[in-house]
Design a protein that fits this description.
62% helix, 485 residues, two-stranded antiparallel sheet, transcription cis-regulatory region binding, 2% strand, SNI1, mainly alpha, 21 helices, Negative regulator of systemic acquired resistance SNI1, 2 domains
């Protein structure tokens, strides 16, 4: 029986948002808004217990009026902003999780960006007057029409978004309860902001595939955020990579991905004073959001490149280094980052792309000579990479440039992607094209590559991960050959 070596079971999936279920007229009910905001008004209240109870009552009032009622009312800008303020300044694990859940649920029920289907034709709808936690582009419109500049202090502009990630990089003090709760709040804020970017990105992506209209992405929240002069993109990516490298805990079950703690769990955690354990679990959920952000930026860069080719962009779109280049620069100049990054980054399509582009820095020219003159190094496929290791001479030339350990590690992770694609072909067409050969061919060439690497370096060390990859390749190769007979 074939034993595949372990690879993560989770897969990145983005759910399309639903259209609003209530009409804008429901927001005209000022009574609901005033009642909810009156509960939140803590002027004159000195007791922190009373403040906690008032905030909890406010959250429950918003949920009852906007989600649980028979005829729910669309939440007003002030109600949204009030819930967002509770998340940022709750000083309570229970309130932080409750406000986070409420914001996520409101986002699903009342999306700002969504698709409508009329007579089989999908149209993109963007409700620009809706509340946003991000203050970018037209994001300031809501606060401006209300004549209240101070209220924008609670929102996240590109600079504050970067500062939030920097704050997450700083280690939390587990002995300080307030510090631990603040760290959890920051992680939930980041998750919610990424969810907001994703909810805007997904319908635009669907609309773009049908129309190839770059304007859909030019006006996307993600593109405006990353294109802002207030944001240093390279520093942002490096900080995100640091979080991936230092918060990866392989001992935690994969099932934590995509899960959100219930409010009951949060209350129990608070009562039992187990914020440290909750902090570790929340860090795993933050990794999911980090990977989502990376994938969205990679998709955006790919679409931007396509739009450039079609002549759809202009100088007004500005210029930004692709995220892949920033990641590769960090991995090449900090070799110690490579293994933990490949373990933490489990988006298979892009993981293979990173590996191939890494190899292209050292052996891409050989592939270009055998291709059409208009081909680029990004056309390099895994089958071509393995061919460079099929003789000791060519293997020695590559190892001299990149090192034996790096070559072995990249090949083992690339083979892991092949096994995943073989086991789950639901959305692997593009990845299969990047592999460029059958699984049997890849398995045989993978074994030969390691044999030649061993001849080049007699004292090389093979990690348990790589040994398991070799064992799987040998077993699978024999099995596939027997099936052909």
């Amino acid at each position: 029986m074939v034993q595949y070596f372990p690879f993560p079971r989770s897969k990145h999936r983005m759910a399309a948002p639903r259209a609003p279920t209530t009409t804008p007229a429901a927001a005209a009910d000022g009574g609901i808004e005033e009642n909810a905001m009156a509960i939140l008004d803590s002027s004159g209240i000195k007791d922190s217990c009373d403040l906690h109870d008032d905030r909890a009552a406010f959250l429950e009032a918003v949920r009852s009026a906007c989600l649980a009622a028979n005829n729910p009312s669309t939440p007003s800008w002030r109600m949204y902003d009030g819930v967002f303020q509770v998340l940022q300044n709750s000083s309570s694990l229970e309130l932080a999780v409750a406000s986070f859940h409420l914001l996520m649920d409101l986002g699903k029920q009342y999306p700002r960006t969504y698709l409508t289907d009329s007579d089989g034709h999908q149209s993109l709808v963007v409700v620009k007057e809706s509340w946003l936690p991000l203050l970018i582009g037209n994001g300031s419109h809501s606060s401006e029409i209300r004549g209240n500049a101070r209220i924008s202090d609670h929102l996240f502009d590109p600079s504050r978004f970067s500062l939030l990630i920097e704050a997450m990089v700083e280690p939390a003090n587990p002995t300080d309860d307030n510090n631990g709760i603040k760290a959890i709040e920051n992680m939930m804020l980041f998750q919610y902001l990424v969810n907001t970017l994703e909810a805007d990105f997904v319908p635009r992506h669907i609309a773009y595939k049908k129309s190839l209209d770059w304007v859909f992405f030019r006006e996307s929240l993600l593109n405006m955020l990353l294109g802002s002069r207030k944001l240093v993109f390279k520093s942002l990516v490096k900080n995100c990579m640091y979080l991936l490298l230092n918060q990866f805990h392989p001992e935690v079950e994969d099932g934590v991905e995509g899960s959100i703690p219930s409010e009951g769990e949060a209350k129990s955690a608070s009562d039992m004073d187990s914020s440290l354990n909750y902090l570790l679990l929340e860090s795993e959920r933050t990794l999911v959001s980090l990977r989502k952000l990376f994938v969205m930026v990679m998709e955006l860069d790919l679409i931007r490149k396509e739009a450039d080719t079609l002549g759809l962009t202009s100088r007004a779109d500005g210029f930004r280094n692709p995220i892949m280049e920033v990641i590769l620069d960090e991995l090449i100049y900090n070799i110690s980052y490579l293994s933990p990054f490949l373990l933490a980054f489990m988006e298979w399509k892009w993981k293979l792309e990173i590996i191939l582009q890494y190899f292209s820095k050292y052996c891409g020219k050989g592939a270009v000579r055998t291709r059409r003159s208009d081909s680029s190094q990004q056309d390099l496929k895994l089958g071509s990479v393995l061919s460079f290791f099929l003789t000791t001479t060519s293997a020695k030339a590559i190892v001299k440039k990149m090192g034996t350990e790096v070559a072995q590690l990249l090949l083992a992770h690339a083979y892991q992607v092949c096994l995943y694609v073989q086991s789950d072909s639901s959305d692997s067409t593009a990845t299969t094209e990047k592999i460029g050969a059958s699984l049997q061919e890849i398995s045989c060439d993978f074994i030969s590559a390691f044999q030649n690497l061993r001849k080049v370096g007699l004292n090389i060390q093979i990690s348990p991960f790589e040994k398991e990859a070799l064992f799987t390749a040998a077993t699978l190769s024999r099995k596939l050959k027997n099936e052909e007979r």
